[in-house]
Write a structure and sequence with these properties.
mainly alpha; three-stranded antiparallel beta sheet; 10% strand
């Protein structure tokens, strides 16, 4: 490996001062010229590959040009920070939009300027961070056979018990509504078959539309309850709103389309009113 150097460095970037311990990065090559496959380097590689799925995703803004917040997993992946680097960083807790607020779940976010300062304290320069990130990416593409990467850390995700509690929110009500509307639709199918009533046929379609509407809502609930990952650290909560929109707009256009079709057919093929026996 390379030579380790320890020094206390005070870094200042974007008005944020961070005190960090500068532990010089190990060389990307071992003493014998082979790739450095130390435990720390493999952990950094695992974190990077969990976030970036293409080389384009390795790009980061120029240091000091943006003021925003970043998740811990993303900071570890792109700025090559270690868990101990976060101890001195300011943290902001924000409501995670994919979870029920009643559960009190909050995402831990860090100011990007503080993360950049910590990266400079550890690596010395933005160019060094970029070079090491690219070296890790190349190592991941040519990793020797038999090397097992440790599991990446997704500390932005909630605990399993909390995810289970969130999944139950609204799910039972939708499942019950689907079951009840299926029974109602079946009874209307029988009534329509026996009576031949146009009104009953309309009610039958209405019940089937309700079942379809609630099925789409159920899909939205299930998709929104998926676990947060490195690509979507805030989770998939907004999916419920997308599927609710599809449900509402879909039912509207389906009813509108059927009404227009029926009206056009009646104008193209008019029929005389006939007496219907009661």
């Amino acid at each position: 490996g390379g030579v380790r150097a320890s020094a206390v460095t005070r870094a200042s970037l974007g008005g944020v001062r961070t005190v960090a311990v500068l532990a010089g990065a190990r060389s990307s090559m071992g003493a014998d010229g082979s790739p450095d496959l130390s435990k720390e380097r493999l952990a950094a590689l695992s974190q990077l590959l969990a976030y970036a799925h293409s080389e384009d995703e390795l790009r980061v803004p120029e240091f000091g040009t943006r003021r925003s917040l970043i998740t811990r997993s993303k900071a570890q992946a792109l700025y090559l920070l270690r868990p101990e680097d976060f101890h001195a960083l300011p943290v902001k807790l924000k409501n995670a939009p994919n979870f029920d607020l009643r559960l009190g779940l909050r995402a831990r976010l860090y100011p990007l300027s503080a993360v950049e300062a910590a990266a400079l304290a550890r690596w010395g320069s933005a160019e060094r961070v970029e070079a090491e990130r690219r070296a890790l990416w190349k190592l991941g593409k040519s990793l020797p056979a038999g090397v097992v990467l440790p599991a990446p850390v997704h500390d932005d995700a909630p605990r399993p018990s909390q995810r289970g509690a969130q999944r139950l929110t609204g799910e039972k009500a939708v499942v019950t509504a689907i079951a009840v509307n299926c029974a109602i639709a079946a009874s209307k199918v029988g009534a329509d078959a026996l009576s031949g009533s146009g009104a009953m046929f309309s009610e039958m379609l209405h019940s089937f539309a309700d079942v379809g509407n609630q099925a789409l809502l159920y899909v939205g609930i299930r998709r929104a309850a998926r676990d947060a990952d490195s690509q979507f650290p805030y989770g998939y909560g907004p999916d419920r709103y997308v599927w609710s929109l599809i449900s509402g707009v879909g039912i509207f256009f389906m009813g509108c389309g059927l009404s227009i079709q029926h009206g056009v057919e009646e104008m193209m093929h008019p029929q005389h009113v006939e007496s219907v026996p009661i």
